[in-house]
Specification:
This protein is of the alpha+beta class. It contains three helices and two strands, in the order ααβαβ. Helix 1 packs across helix 2.
Length: 102
Amino acid sequence: SSDLWTDAIKFMCELEGDSEHWNEKQEILRRSIQQIVKCDVMQSNPLSPISVPQADCLFIAYLETACLDIQTLCTALKNVSSLLKTGSYLVMMSIFGCTFYM
């Protein structure tokens, strides 16, 4: 939901010491996102059947929930990393080892 993003952006801005400008950063993020697509991280092309250019940044939430063990997680990470340009960013939100949620 958009409330989750707002809270996350406010939190990030607080960590950066700039809690007053969260609204501008949120707008920059919204303008930067070009597409949100579903994927199957167990496929070598996780976005199959569509094909997209490699990305500068990729956001993934709860990847570990699709994986039964560490080997499967490593395979999923390899598959997902094929979507990224060399030197780009993989941003992950995870519940692995968490005892509570934000």
